[in-house]
Design brief:
This protein is mostly helical. Helix content is 77%, strand content 0%. The protein contains 18 helices and no strands.
Amino acid sequence: MSRPARSIHGEWSSRWAFILAATGSAVGLGNIWKFPYIAGENGGGAFVLVYLGCIALIGLPVMMAEVLIGRRGRQNPVNTLKSLSTEEKAPASWTLLGWMGLLAGFIILSYYSVIAGQAMAYVFRAFSGVFTGVTADGANSIHQSLTGDPERLLAWHTLFMVFTMTVVARGVKSGLEKLVSFIMPALFIMLIILVGYAANTGEYFSQAASFLFTPDFSKLTEEAVLVAMGHAFFTLSLGMGAIMVYGSYLKKETSITTMSISISIADTIVALLAGMAIFPLVFANGMSPDAGFSLLFVTLPIAFGHMAGGQLFGGLFFILLVFAAWSSAISLIEPAVAWLVENKQISRRRASVTIGFAAWLLGLFTVFSFNIGENWLLFGMTMFGLLDYLTTNIMLPLGGLLTIIFAGWVMAKESTKDELAIRLPIFYHTWRILVRYISPIAIIIVFLNKIGLVG
C-alpha cells in the first residue's frame, strides 16, 4: 500500500528525544500524587502488580496503536485520520476522532494551566519560608488566599500559559525537544534528591515503602482492579492526540514497541519515586495520605514546614510539579498547533499564540470556579468540574477506544505490521489480538465505570 505524503513540520533528532517528550507528556500532576495514593489504598504491592498487568494489556497496546497511526500519517491527528481513512478505504467520518483528540487536549490545557499556575505560586512561597511552622488552618488559609483571589490566580494562569506557548512556538527541535531534554532529566534528579531527603525520616520511610509495596490482597477488590485499569490508560496521555502527533515526528527506523515499553516503564518509575518522596513526609507529620488534590497544596506544605530543610526541599518539590505540568502542557497544545500550521499555512509562533490564547480564555471559567463563580453550576458541577468530567470520563476513554478500533479493525494488517516492524511474528499477533479484543473490552469497562454504570 502507498503511504500518505510526508507532511510534517519537524522530526525528533533521536529516539531518546521521543522517549523524553512522550514520557514528559505522560508524567503530570496526577503521577506525583494520585498513583502513589491509589496504590497504597488498594493493596500496595498487590495493586502495583495488577497495575503493571493493566499497562501491558491496555496502556502499552493503545500507545503503540496511537504512535503507529501518527507515524504512518505524518501529520496532525485530523489530517492523519483523513489520509489514513482514504488509504484504507474507510469512511471519512474517522476524521472526527482526530478532532475529538484536538478538542480534548485543548480543554484539558485550559484548566491544567490554572492548576499548574498554583504550583508555580507555591515555588516562591516554599523558598521564602511561608510554610515554616505552618498549621493546618494556616496552610488552608494560604491556599484559599490564592484560589479565592481571581486576579492573583489569573496572573499565574497567564504566566504558565505564556511559558507553554513560548516553547511550542519554537518548533519541535528548538522548542519541544530542548525543553524536555532539560526538564525530564532534571525531574528525575529532583525526585531522587527528594527520596533521599525523605529517607531521613527513618521509620516513616519504611512505613511508606510498606504502604506502597507490601502486597495486601484483601484490599484487591473489583473496584481496585477497575481503578488500576483506568489509571493504566489515563497515565500515558492516551486518547487526546498528543502521543499521535508526537509519533508523527518519529523516524521510520525507530522501534515503536521499544519506545512504548520505555515510556511505560519511565512513567511508572516516576510515580513510584514520587510516592517514596511524598509519603514518608506525610506519615512523619501524622497526616493522612488520602487527602486527594489538597495533598499538594495543603498537606505537603505542612509537612515541609515542620521538617529540617523543608524550605529548600519544599521549593524543589514545587519546581518538580511545575516541570511535570509544563512537559504535559506542551503535548496538550501541540496537536492543535500542528493542525493550524498544516491547514492554514501560518507560522508556528502565530499558531501557538492563537491556540494558547483561546485555551487561556476558556481557562477563565476554571479560575472563577474557585472564587466568584463557585456557585455557577451546570449539571450540579462547577465549570472546572464539568470540563474535567467531560474530558477524563468521556472524551479520553472514547478517543482511546476509537483509536485501537481504527488500528485493529480499520487499518489493514499489512499497514500496522509495516509500521510496527516487529521481528517475531508471535509478538505482532499478540499485539493485534490485544488491540482487537482485549483492550477494547477493558476500555469499555473503564468507560462504563467512569460514568457510573459499572462498579
